[in-house]
Design a protein that fits this description.
The protein is α+β, with helices and mostly antiparallel strands. The chain is built from 19 helices and 19 strands. A seven-stranded mixed beta sheet has the order 15-16-14-13-17-18-19, sandwiched between helices. α10 packs across α17, α13 packs across α15 and α15 packs across α19. The structure holds beta-L-fructofuranose.
Amino acid sequence: SLAPVHLAVDLGASSGRVIAGSLQNDQMELAEVHRFANDPVTIQQSMHWNVHGLWADIQHGLRTAAQQFNTVASVGVDTWGVDYVLVDDQDQMTGPVRHYRDPRTRGAMQRAWGIVPRQEIFEATGLQFMELNTLYQLVAARLDGEHSLEIADGFLMMGDFFHWLMTGKRSIEATNASTTQLLDPRTRQWSRELISRFQLPGKIFQNVTEPGSQLGVIQPSVAALTGLDNVPVIIPATHDTASAVIAVPVNDFAPEKPNWCYISSGTWSLMGCELAQPRINAKCAELNFTNEGGIQGSTRLLKNIGGLWIFQQIRKSLERRQAAESWDVMVERALAAKPFELLINPDDEAFVAPTDMVDAIVSYAGRTGQKAPESNGVLYRGALEGLALRYRACLEMLETLVGNRIDVIHIVGGGSQNELLCQMTADACDRVVVAGPVEATAAGNIAVQMMGTGQLGSIVEARELIRTSFGTKQFDPADRSAWDDAAEKFKSL
Ligand code: LFR
């Protein structure tokens, strides 16, 4: 077709894609151009991202798109949060790129609080405390004297890094910078005070840019390899979760009294509300919610929940035992298994980066006074029910934080395809669940590119386009009583 396409490079923690998006008869149409694995690489005792492999795959995807489509109007990258690349003054990377599950951050929060008290960090940033946050990675690097930090001249988040490879230009985009725990959410610029109190090199943190503008064009060396000569790079909301939230199919934006919340469902489940202002108060700190940056100055008040990670990792560990089953079979067996045989809190530390997930669950069952799972079905079901129970607890906290009832839960992203989980969520939370779009992150990325080129006017307009372009499915709550008992037991885990 002749309509210009926008290319979204969407990198998740387990796979990446290049997706082409265009307007066809007033609908947003998405086509997957290239999909590739994103597997961590262990070097000595550390976990790294294979950024060279990712870049090769991205270029492969761009080249395929250039061959497939007549006009490529723009390109933009979104990725997972918190991880970063350091570059020197000769435009070289200063070292390998760590994975947020790398063990060097174990205990780093406590070390950091010894320098700046927890409460002061929260007041400055409004962010939830997670060991994987950039701040604790940098504190570990600083205290351990990592050379790559000492010789750094520039700090880039993952999306910024790939934009830099494409254009040769350095930038720091606001939504992903907001996941570092070094950004002041009121000004959406770095907290220079925190940076200096942690004795981090201030010069590497350049001013933060809001999404929606053009960074530059594909530089000649990359154009020669991809065929994308002079194509603009438009900075989307480079944090994947921020892009996904843009694609929630509602008809308002950052409402005063939110009556909907979202769950961006993938490796993680990010559950929260979109607000006009950050909520930095004692309650938010106590419940460990985060005020991450959304599009156009909005706030994503949300909580990280351990997501489908456990479900995915059960499969990995069964694969090692040559006993893996397909995703569909896993869901079927979960459906057939007896409810609440095994309660799993997806946010238990034991599940962050175990060598073997099934072993971790078996020992967790023992530790929490539960029977060892007797079948794969029990394992699968436990992983899904645990999520639904966490959603229920999280919804309650969200309602306290925003001060009103939330009527509808929007599940977007890959996990919205799991109908069993959607129905469990509706039942456990006693709320209507609207599932879809599946490709929320890519759709949100492309919507911002379309705003950048003037094809779309506003977020409300973008959401209307997304709502009419992609199907959603509604799940009504039923059968709450069984979940009430389980929720009580869950609390005591
Ligand atoms: C989801 C996500 C989350 C972030 C986690 C780690 O893909 O971006 O929002 O907390 O990954 O970066």
